[in-house]
Each structure stands twice: as structure tokens, then as C-alpha cells.
Amino acid sequence: MNSQQLKKIGLPDKPGVYFFLGRPKGSGKMDKTILYIGKATSLRDRVRSYFSKDLVSTRGPAILDMTVKADSVEWQETDSVLESLILEANLIKKYKPKYNTKEKDNKSFNFVCINKDVPSKVLIVRGRNLDKNLYKNIFGPFPNGNLLKEAMKIIRRIFPYFDYDSNKKNNREFYKQLGLIPKEEYNENIKNIKLLFQGKKKSIIINLKTQMSSFSKVREFEKAGEIKKRIFALEHINDIALIKDNEIASQKYENSHRFTLKGSGWDKNFHISIPLFRIEAYDIAHMGGQNMVGVMTVIENGEVNKSEYRKFIIRTQDAANDTGALEEVLSRRLRHIEWGLPNLIVVDGSTAQINVAKRVLDRYQFDIPIVGVVKDERHRPKAIIGDEAIIKINKKNILLANNESHRFAITFHKQKRNKSFLN
User: What is the pTM of this model?
Assistant: First the structure.
């Protein structure tokens, strides 16, 4: 197979799993076998990469040999990268493709295991250490350990579970909170994790909707609301953590467990490995409604964290509507629960901006304090409005976050305006 043949296939720019197929020697004309299975953030881009000139140096001679022997590619789309990771493992286990095992020693693969403890622990176990007698359930193999760890962080925020670290001092607060979950609810979490690793996300959602309806009928609205949040999280898995640089991801492993839910009964920091106070500031920039952009800047424990900054090109506004643009930015940002959630939101403006932010937070059912930085005619801060106690404690960092968001927004707007002018 070659790149010219690939162009005719029409692979989608979506996450999923791909299969390189070929015919073994002596097989019939229709007798194809799966040579290799892989996952992708973009099926189109990932499969194209197998036909680059530096394939030997990047993937090795075995994979080059595989592409030469392959004569077709098939694929299966998934709703998210997380699900493609799980599907890849299930299919590798089922078909045992020659070049997956040839590329990597079986003993170096990773497995997700649920042990026989009470309550059960969910563990990542290396193949060489896997003793099947110790576990009730084993899922895998997973070729990429770093991506699996990132996937487990996402799953754990939706269905909390115990793992190896229950005795570590810096995790005691998390496990103390987790221990307050009723036994039946914890067992339900484990059941749902099993279903997820079996590729049965739809079954989980159906079960959760049934439970939510039951709680609503007996007017236990708080419990129904908790289940609604889980359903939302499952239906909106935006797993940026799975596609960013693995080294950066692993460095942020402990800090990315924060998950704040309205009325959840959990601490503001869902997993407090390293106590962290995160402030997110938002600002909008444009010139008469043209080239409108929005930004998010982040201050963590008083320090600027530029790696967490985000840019947004406004899509829903075609006039100078700052509050409408802010609503769009916050709505898009809050779909990314895998980024973690802030302890405080800072908006550039007054009551109108604060009300818009509250409306978006209510829509997503997140309970996060909001303050607004009011500016004078020279766009200098003249007041901060919101909870006085929060402002008193965090005034310096609120102003720093707001200043950063204004600077970052102006810079991004100028870049976009200049690009538009050149075009």
C-alpha cells in the first residue's frame, strides 16, 4: 500500500481505531488478516503518518515492513479519544495482530485491573507483574502507559475509585472523602468502570438516566442532580489530556484531578494531592466587533501558568457584544472538564459580565465564585466587585489575573487583525 492509494480512501478527521489489513502468504484472494491496530485523535492524520519518509527512524523497521505488506486500511470511529484507547485495547486482545506484538514486548504492555479487595481497587498493572489470580477483572493490553494514566484521571473524575495510593499521606483527604460514599454507590462506580472498559458507554448512560428518573420521582433532587452531572461528563468527554505532549501531561498528573460540582458534598478540590488555588480570568478583545477574540489566563498559587492559557476565536457574535462573546467563551471552556476547574473566576467588567458568567455556570451546574474587575475611562482597575472576603484574600492575584487576560487578549486580537489584513 502507498500514499496514493491512501488518498482514495477518505479517512475522517475524527477519533477512532484503524486497522492495517493484508494477506498472509498462501492465503486465498479474499482471506485478509489484521496486521496492525492503532488508535487516533484524527484517523486521517494518523494513518497518513505511516507513509512519511522518516517512518523507520520514528517507528522502526517492523512498522515499515507492516505498511509494505498491508494492502488496505479500515477504521471504526469513536466519540472520543478516551473511547478509542479502550477500543484499541479490546481489539488487540481479540485479534492479537502480528505487528502490535512485534513492535512491543507483551510484558511491557499495561493492564487495568480490578482487585478482590473490599472495597475494590482499580489498578494499572504492567504485564510482567500481572498475576491473574489476584484480580476479578482485567482489561487490556494498553500499549501506551502515559496515555492510560491520563485516561484513568478522566474516568476517576466521573466514577471515583480507590487505587494504589490510599496509604500515601498527601492523598488522605481524597480517600477520606471517597470513604464517605455509601457502599452501594461505590460498587455502582466499579460496575460502571467495568462497562466503560467493555466499550459499553451507552449502557452506562441508559442506566444512569433510569436512576436519575427514579430519584426525581421520589423528589430526591440532589441525588438526581449528581447523576445528571455524570451523564453530562460521559456525553461530553473532551479529552485534550490524552492528545497533548505526554511528558507535560505526566508532570501535571497530580494537579489535574480538581473537579468542582455544585452541591456535591465534596471539597472544592476533588483530589488534593498538592493544595492548589486556581484563578481563571477572562477578557474579550475586538475593534468595533471585528476580529473578536476571547482568552483565558490562569494564576495558580499566585504564579502565572502560561501553559494553561487558552485562546478562543468568537464564532457566535458579529457585532460589538462583549457579554455575548463572554458567554460563548465560558460555555466552550466549561465543556473541558478535563482541564480541571478553577476556585475563582475573574471577569473584566461589572454586573453584566458577572451575571452572564453566573448564568453559564448555572447551566453547567458548577458552583464557582465570580468577581468582576471594573475599569476607569483609561481602562485601569478602579474596583473589584463580588464576595468581599474572597476579594480581600485574593486581591493581588485577582488583579494579576485580570491584567494578564487583558494583555493576552490584546496580543491575540492584534495577531488576528494583522493576519486578516494580510489576507
Answer: 0.55
